[in-house]
């Protein structure tokens, strides 16, 4: 908002006027925004790197990144430049014309996933994770087989198809009937998966790490077994890498991580991406490999905004920056440092630490994650209570050593503060 011209610069920089405070925005949010979205308390109004500032002028170090989205942090110069240049050149063309940025980004993704070795591949761009999974669901339907296997606890998005694929009854309830044919198996249980998959199975859909369900990595051998079982029955293996993809785990994609596969990459037939890929802009992708890439026929799917040049330019800037700044190694190193340091901490609230790279779940010994997140905020850190007893850390991939050490140094006091039951 522009202050009235009579306002002196000194006044304009003073404490925020009451009507632009966090509390005022929170009230306006409740007045104007759909209640489905809950009632957040902080209005984040500016940021730089891993720092973000709220409407009251408080600055936080951001260990959540808009839920694993701001891969390069806030206001990264490479994203600003790419987006500004693109919107000043051609901002939108629709699917009826070629988005040159979309072509470039698709080629880059196919290279990173090793499409050549997998018999080629094709990319469908969407605007979110849910939509990327909708595209994958439609590919699965095109096999002509009725059944799709998903995992209990999984999260694949909130649109009706993605919701049908989501293995959390609480999120589905109230919205049935949903698209049919989906069955859920316990995540990580090879025998249950083997028993569920047969010649009527179109696809098995799995997250390499169940992010929204409390950062639960696939147990040893599970992804590889899923690959073998699907291959045996001619079913597709779809990996939802919306949260784990684009460097989050220290690899371009989590299915390339030996920590999760036990060795060689577990190459899926279809992989979905979103969150980090757009560096903060809305972008999703459904990458199909081999025969799966040919299942959707011309005219069978589309998205007006999908492949939008501005979002794809941001995506290219994200990939370039990850490569140029060696961020995959940085993620691995920083993730190890956080994981090992927290494991070495002796605090009654700390249980196991799980995850990979910069997708980390701190399991608590009591269901006080909300209190811990609130205490972290009072100490100047944004973290996420992803489950009643799990804190999720997903900082920008560019998080500095200084920011990481600051969080580690503050963590014991944050946990003490949370156990003392400070104000929420
Ligand atoms: C966040 C997420 C989605 C949904 O993405 P939206 O962009 O919110 O639609 C799907 N799958 C996984 C694994 C996610 O983490």
Automatic annotation (TrEMBL):
EC nos: 2.6.1.11
Places the protein is found: Cytoplasm
CDD domains linked to this entry: OAT_like
Comment on bound cofactor: Binds 1 pyridoxal phosphate per subunit.
Cofactor(s) the record lists: pyridoxal 5'-phosphate
A GO MF term: pyridoxal phosphate binding
Gene Ontology BP, a term: L-arginine biosynthetic process
GO cellular component: cytoplasm
Residues the entry annotates as binding pyridoxal 5'-phosphate: 129-130, 155, 240-243, 304
Keywords of the record: Amino-acid biosynthesis, Aminotransferase, Arginine biosynthesis, Cytoplasm, Pyridoxal phosphate, Transferase
Pfam families for the chain: Aminotran_3
Binding residue positions for N(2)-acetyl-L-ornithine: 158, 303
Matches recorded under HAMAP family: ArgD_aminotrans_3 (MF_01107)
Miscellaneous comment as given in the Swiss-Prot or TrEMBL entry: May also have succinyldiaminopimelate aminotransferase activity, thus carrying out the corresponding step in lysine biosynthesis.
Family indicated by similarity: Belongs to the class-III pyridoxal-phosphate-dependent aminotransferase family. ArgD subfamily.
Protein name per its UniProtKB record: Acetylornithine aminotransferase
Organism: Allostreptomyces psammosilenae
Name of the coding gene: argD
């Amino acid at each position: 908002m522009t202050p009235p011209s009579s306002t002196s610069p000194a006044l304009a920089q003073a404490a925020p006027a009451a009507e632009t405070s966090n509390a005022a925005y929170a009230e306006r949010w409740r007045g104007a925004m759909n209640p489905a979205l809950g009632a957040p308390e902080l209005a984040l109004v500016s940021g730089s790197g891993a720092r973000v500032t709220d409407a009251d002028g408080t600055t936080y170090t951001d260990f959540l990144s808009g839920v694993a989205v701001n891969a390069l942090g806030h206001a990264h110069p490479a994203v600003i430049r790419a987006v500004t240049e693109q919107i000043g050149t051609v901002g939108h063309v629709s699917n009826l014309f070629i988005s040159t940025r979309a072509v470039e980004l698709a080629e880059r993704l196919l290279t990173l996933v090793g499409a050549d070795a997998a018999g080629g591949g094709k990319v469908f761009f969407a605007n979110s994770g849910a939509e990327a999974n909708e595209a994958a669901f439609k590919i699965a339907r095109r096999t002509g087989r009725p059944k799709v296997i998903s995992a209990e606890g999984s999260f694949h998005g909130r649109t009706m198809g993605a919701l049908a694929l989501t293995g959390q009854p609480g999120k589905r309830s109230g919205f049935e009937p949903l698209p049919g044919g989906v069955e859920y198996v316990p995540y990580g249980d090879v025998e249950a998966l083997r028993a569920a998959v047969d010649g009527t199975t179109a696809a098995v859909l799995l997250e390499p790490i169940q992010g929204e369900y409390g950062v639960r990595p696939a147990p040893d051998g599970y992804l590889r077994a899923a690959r073998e079982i699907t291959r045996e029955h001619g079913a597709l293996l779809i990996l939802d890498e919306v949260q784990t993809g684009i460097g989050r785990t220290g690899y371009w994609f989590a299915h390339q991580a030996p920590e999760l596969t036990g060795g060689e990459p577990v190459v899926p037939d279809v992989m979905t991406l979103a969150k980090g890929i757009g560096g903060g802009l809305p972008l999703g992708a459904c990458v199909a490999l081999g025969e799966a890439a040919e299942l959707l026929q011309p005219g069978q799917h589309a998205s007006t905004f999908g492949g939008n040049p501005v979002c794809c330019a941001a995506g290219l800037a994200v990939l370039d920056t990850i490569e140029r700044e060696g961020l995959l190694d940085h993620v691995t190193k920083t993730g190890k440092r956080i994981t090992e340091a927290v494991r070495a901490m002796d605090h009654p609230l700390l249980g196991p630490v799980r995850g990979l790279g910069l997708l980390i779940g701190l399991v608590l010994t009591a269901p006080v994650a909300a209190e811990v997140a609130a205490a972290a905020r009072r100490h100047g850190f944004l973290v996420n209570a992803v489950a009643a007893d799990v804190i999720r850390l997903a900082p920008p991939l560019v998080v500095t050593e200084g920011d990481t050490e600051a969080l580690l140094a503050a963590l014991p006091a944050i946990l003490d503060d949370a156990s003392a039951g400070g104000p929420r």
